[in-house]
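Journal club prep — side note

Before the paper discussion, L.F. wants everyone to see what a predicted structure for a comparable chain looks like in token form. Sequence:
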Amino acid sequence: MNRYLNFGIEEEYFITDLDTRRMSGKPSGAAIEACKAVLGDCFALEMFLGQIEVASPIFTSLPQAADYLGTARQSLRLALEPHGLGLLTAGSHPLADWRTQQPTDQAHFLQLFEDYQHVARRSLLCGLHVHVEVPGHLDRIHVMNEILPWMPLLLALSSSSPFWNGADSGFMSYRQTACDEWPRMGVPEYFADQNAYDAYVDLLIRTGAIRQAGECWWGVRPASRFPTLELRMTDACPRLEDALCIAAMFRLLVACAIDQPRPGSSWSQQSRWILQENRWRAKRFGIHASFIVEGYDRPFSAEQWLFMAEQIFGDAAQAMGVEEVFTQARRILRDGTSAERQRTLYRQVLGSTGDVQAALSAVVDLLLMETAEQPCINRAMCES
């Protein structure tokens, strides 16, 4: 078990006007330059002018990730405040209106808007992306197939996008519903191995469907620029401790898959059907969903599924020094996800004021506050 398996984390953020609580349609150039100055090479623009991204350096331990991302969030917040702006991360922004957002003037993004039109214009979404290194001698598709069944559990734990276009969507992760408007998102196609995947991508490029392999945006994919598997299914997490928990779980799953003599050997078309169904349940009901576990004829609650995960991966987690990841995941199940906190606050304020805008503004304030909080994850997990 590789205790120091390399990984990286990408977090996407909404820039928010602190007066209106709305997503900023066009933050000033000075505000963006201030963000670039504090992050350096780890700063990245996103599809819309009101979004930015942190692409972390390579980590070998969770404490590195906690320290870097905690500092990055704080530095960005302090850089934006003099401009009347705040930093918010969640799968969707409660007060964002896609009709008022402006695309970022870069060739790559402009091409996406040209190719995908309305779908791209509606894509006001923030995700948590985690890269984990896969040794070069292994088939990344085999490793991907080994871990895919667990992805809906991670999605449920991350769910933070109940609001869309100023209304309650009824989903815990509406972001994943919006993602389904895009081609090649969600659940990957069935691939037996890397050769099958490469043949698929080659066909799409040769026939003009895509320009590069990076235009396959599935919830888990072999990264095109790095020797990693990339988690993309999960919502951005306002609480950094939740993001770190999910990143640690994904890294643990990849590490265990790498140690298997034949990773992915049990993956089948039926496995993929079950994954599709579980993903639907996770995005609709979050941690309150009942899930299908292959080989069992009864549904599993999120608590039961997490217990199973701890039975299977607990020894490996201890060997990697991240055994507390299961304690953190149980905390999310006990205390609720961001989606639940947002919806609870919205209903409380709406019930007392009858004012939808006031209720949504209160949710934005909650997300701004949680994004600014420093992680208080269990030190036993962070000091490994």
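L.F.'s comment for the group: DSSP finds 14 helices and eleven strands in the chain. Keep this in mind when we get to the figures.
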